[in-house]
Amino acid sequence: MEIKKAVLPVAGMGTRFLPATKVIPKEMLTIVDRPTIQFIVEEIVASGIKEIVFVTSVGKSAIENHFDYSYELETFLAQKGKTDLLREVRNISRLIDVVAVRQKEPLGLGHAVMVTEKVVGDNAFVVALGDDLVWAEVPCVYQMIKVFNEYQESVIAVQRVPEKETHKYGIVEGEEVAPGVFRIDKLIEKPKPGTTTSTLAIIGRYCLRPEIFPCLHRTIPGVGGEIQLTDALNALQKERGMYAYEFSGNRYDAGDKFGYLQANVHFGLEHAEIGGKFREFLKEVVKGMGS
Ligand code: G1P
To answer: How many domains, the chain?
Structure first.
């Protein structure tokens, strides 16, 4: 089974970033000069996938527009001779083929994936969460697809987190069967302290087999009264097995104020145009803090 589609749930309200997200979708908040969602899309495209399914809700049209052709803007940039910017803007609209599906009620991540069933069909697919930004030499999704292709079972990205933070994540328990690859025995969404010894946390990248859909249909609301993807994954794991992959790369939680700032600093330092200047500035700031 080959992976050709990616589902990007972008229907969330973004309450952690209010008031910034009152009118602007959180996925459109920028890291230096690109909206966070563009980083995710670029990672997916760099992993060989062009068909993107956005799961949207009211007020999220800016995301679809961002990846659409903008006649007015392109004409304006062409007239002004701003060829570099024109190329950049054109590339965005040429990156992907977009389908948007509405999540009509905020019933959780599992529900967001479930509403894509007709569009995804009987195919394996990627789910990528917009809050998780991954900087990696080899795109995280590409790393995972390699594992999926080898095992032909669903693969979930994981990263080790400090024990005191496991309650913020879905946690997997399992046995390492190859370097960085774990055969999963159990998945627990946001475990209460002391209920697991595992520190392998689910990061928002999943390669899923289509058999996840019947599992989602059978999933009853779990943590937070929401239909949890993790609960459906548990059912799928029991049915046919599943793997976790400890990817290499840095992950930032761009849905959290601190993680968002960290991502801005990291990508600011990496930025071709301003990286050098920014590094000097940070040095000055650190020096100033020492005095
Ligand atoms: C979701 C998943 C959770 C995962 C996390 C990664 O939780 O339900 O299993 O660990 O994303 O970012 P959320 O952060 O939406 O509460």
So the answer is: 2
Residue 238's domain is classified under what CATH number?
3.90.550.10
93: pLDDT strictly greater than 80:
no
Q: How does DSSP assign 249-264, residue by residue? A: SEEEETTSHHHHHHHH
CA distance 244 to 172: 8
pLDDT tens for each residue of 76-91: 889 999 998 888 888 8
Residues spanned by the domain of 117? 3-255
- Cα-to-centroid distance, 254 and ligand 1 (Å): 12
The pTM (predicted TM-score) of the whole model is 0.93
pLDDT of residue 291: 63
CB within 6 Å of ligand 1 — which residues? 109, 129, 131-132, 169-170, 189, 201-204, 229-230
Residues, the chain: 291
